[in-house]
Amino acid sequence: MLANTTASVTEATTTASTGGPTTPSGHPQRSLFAGRARPGEAVIKLGLRLAATVAILTTIGIIIALLVPAIGFFREVPVFDFLFGDRWAPRFADASFGVIPLVTATLWTTAIALIVSVPLGLGAAILLSEYARPGVRKTLKPILELLAGVPTVVYGLFALQFIQATVFRDWLQLDTGAFSVLAAGLVMGIMIIPTVASISEDAMSAVPMSLRQGSFALGANRMQTSLRVVFPAALSGVMAAVVLGISRAVGETMIVAIAAGNQARIVGGPLEQGQTMTGFIANAALGDSRVGSLEYDTLYAVGLLLFAITLIVNFISIRLVRRFRQAY
Amino acid sequence: MASAHDDAPMHLRPMHTGQVTDHIARPIMRVENVDVYYGDFRAVTEVNLAFGLNEITALIGPSGCGKSTLLRSLNRMNDLIDGARVDGEILFHGENIYGKGVDPIEVRRRIGMVFQKPNPFPKSIYDNIAYGPRVTGMKVDSMDDLVEESLTRAALWDEVKDKLKQSAIGLSGGQQQRLCIARAISVRPDVILMDEPCASLDPIATMRIEDLMQELRKQYTIVIVTHNMQQAARVADRTAFFTAQVSEGTGARTGVLVEYGTTTQIFEDPKDQRTEDYISGRFG
Ligand SMILES: Nc1ncnc2c1ncn2[C@@H]1O[C@H](COP(=O)(O)OP(=O)(O)OP(=O)(O)O)[C@@H](O)[C@H]1O
Ligand SMILES: [Mg+2]
């Protein structure tokens, strides 16, 4: 039935087109329903599909790789004891798997990193997008992005040797040991600045010029225009930048492994040392735990928790963006 | 500073013909020997004009002759364009807005602008109107009243009074443009510059804006750029015709003011052949 109609329409079109001007130049006359095959397009489509499939399969693979050993872990240790226990001692004879100490250390380093990177990153973004002349922006932004490429082990050593040992202990005479979540968090914050700045700068530059003009034409100054018009209009991009910053802070391993400490104790203040979730994984993974042992599975339980936290952060931010979004 | 409401008639500077074309009883703004440059490129040259208080002045002319450029220089919006520069004087209440110590922000508050494409902020209708008074630190007894008053004057209140908290982006194009007009008058400017405000609107929305302009001229002075001859004829008290002059040496196109007078005179009795050609559609 459908094919039938199409066929008759095709016919009608063809007859109609013969009545039209038959100029030899220009596009050849062709029925709209001819369904011209474009082999190049098909190949491109296939390639894109393949790329998407690989990405999805990898994600599923990671989840399975995390889940299987983690399930083994939770067969031995109740989920409740894991999530809410306040003693982390997986290697001891009277082993205990309360993850709270690791979580507190991660919270401290992440919070400190965000306190540093969000204001400075957003400030840099506003400066670049709203204040800098185009030429300046074109040179400054790549330099900023270069900073994001410094290996994290370098940042880690900087935190340990310079910030903690020299600045905190020698210069400021602070009451702190060889490690602190503050030193690790501060340096991690510096590391994340370019990420936050670059992505939010993209979002703010994408805000149409006409909105800025509208604001200036009312007698607003540059700061008001930046903060009250451009910034809210770019909010979803800015939020994405902050979320990526949080994800990087939660997941950052090298800096905290080097400078935050390696004793899993509940962290009560910024000058204390503490082992973060990633710090524990890095330490334990380098150790000699047997595949399939409970100690080995512990790694995956913590890994799964990290994964879940990142997911939750993403989820919350999507909700927030939906609520406060000012789409232009 | 000279008085704004100088009742003495003012001689406009002679046009290129060397004749005095018009008298304006109460000029609120005067453009004197103005050239506008973008870098080395002179976009507009030797413009002399005056805008009468509570009058509507239309700027017309072919595309690229510098109407928008001149309009932007009237409230220093071209400060925002890298390399843009104004020579000559633009007097507002007798004071040069490009003079030393003049705050461009205050200039823009006193001389508002409505753009070709409606550009409401992606905020609520209410916040769109309240934005200007807030950022300029205007003393306001009741923001609600000011919002209502501005929207009423822009003939939009009845359509939006039940959805003030909704996003302005949800309004139709014509409503958005009236919102932008309401936003412009919320800071109580003296002059409103409009750059083809109806260019993206349908005829009905255009009529509404034109009616609105007639209403607004009682309190404000309006300068409007338009490509629509009928619109200029319908709304404007005075009309200035510009064209682009091609320099023999370099081939650069520079905007010049050809003729300025009452709208009736420009449309019915143009003195310059180029004006006549343009308004009768015989141009270029
Ligand atoms: N931001 C800018 N930078 C450089 N040159 C510009 C800029 N804006 C306009 N010009 C140039 O100045 C001249 C006048 O432009 P303008 O936009 O003022 O013309 P217009 O009369 O408003 O034209 P239209 O009727 O098409 O809007 C043109 O040659 C244009 O290329
Ligand atoms: Mg224009």
Kindly describe this structure:
The complex is a heterodimer of chains A (328) and B (284). Chain A is mostly helical and 328 residues long. Chain A has two domains: 1-12 and 34-76; 88-327, MetI-like (MetI-like fold, Orthogonal Bundle), CATH 1.10.3720.10. Chain A is built from 13 helices and two strands, in the order αααββαααααααααα. Chain A has helices spanning 2-19, 39-76, 79-84, 100-131, 134-147, 152-171, 181-205, 209-216, 222-233, 235-251, 254-259, 277-286, 294-324, and strands spanning 88-89, 96-97. Chain A has a two-stranded antiparallel ribbon. In chain A, helix 4 runs parallel beside helix 7 and helix 7 (181-205) packs antiparallel against helix 10. The longest helix of chain A has 38 residues, at 39-76. The two termini of chain A are 45 Å apart. The radius of gyration of chain B is 19 Å and the shape is globular. In chain B, strand 3 and strand 4 (41-52) form a beta hairpin. In chain B, the strands form three sheets. In chain B, strands 8-9-10-5-11-12 form a six-stranded mixed β-sheet, sandwiched between helices. In chain B, strands 4-3-6-7 form a four-stranded antiparallel β-sheet, covered by helices on one side. Chain B has a domain at 16-117 and 190-279: Rossmann fold, CATH 3.40.50. By secondary structure, chain B is an alpha/beta fold. Chain B has helices at residues 67-74, 104-110, 125-135, 143-153, 157-160, 173-186, 203-216, 229-235, 263-268, 273-279, and strands at residues 10-11, 23-24, 27-38, 41-52, 56-60, 84-92, 95-96, 111-114, 191-195, 221-225, 238-246, 253-262. Mean pLDDT of chain B is 88; it is low at 1-22. In chain B, helix 4 packs across helix 6 (173-186). Chain B has ten helices and twelve strands. The chains are: A mainly alpha (328), B alpha/beta (284). Chains A and B meet through helix 8 and helix 9 of A and helix 2, helix 3 and helix 6 of B. Magnesium ion is lined by residues 67-68, 195 of chain B.
